[in-house]
Amino acid sequence: MDSPDGMYQWGRPLDTPNQDVMPAEETVWIVLEDGCRLAARLWLPKDTGPVPAILEYLPYRRRDRHRGDDAILHPGFAAAGYAAIRVDMRGSGDSDGTMDDEYTPQEWADTNEVIAWIAAQPWCSGAVGEFLREGRVVPHSAPLIGGA
Q: What are phi and psi of 47, to 5 degrees?
């Protein structure tokens, strides 16, 4: 919970390291079926088994505009017991490929592959949800994956 003066986030001062979260993995590569590599940053809770995952999948580069927000928000998800993963879409940030437009069939297919990839990771319980920011809609046709 934020304090009114903005000095606290998730119940601790902003400059206090979160002891419940492993350091972020700066670059994790997700290789899609067609060989395209998507760049992601991953935050995991410390000392836990497989956990549910929260995906943030945006055309904004993970290394610039929202990096400061990500440094607060995603460790907060991890401290609450979730894996948090921020993925650059095809053609954005450090990811391969080109982006012709938003909400294309290619984006839908990529999102479904990303969700399946996350659900199959040893740190994930199989449950995957998506965090949406700035009015984006869930661009995939398949339901998010539920698990233990």
A: 55, 50
Q: Would you say residue 69 lies in a domain?
A: yes
Residue 138 burial (CB count, 10 A): 15
Instruction: Give the three-class secondary structure for 88.
Output: strand
| pLDDT tens column, 63-110 | 666 676 777 788 888 988 999 999 999 998 889 888 888 778 898 899
d(CA 141, CA 89): 17
CATH number reported for the structural domain that contains residue 34 in this entry:
3.40.50.1820
For residue 14, what are its two tokens? Answer: 């902003």
Q: What angle do CA 26, 51, 88 make, to 5 degrees?
A: 35
Model pTM score: 0.77
Q: Which residues pair with 37 in a beta bridge?
A: 31
Domain range enclosing 81: 17-130
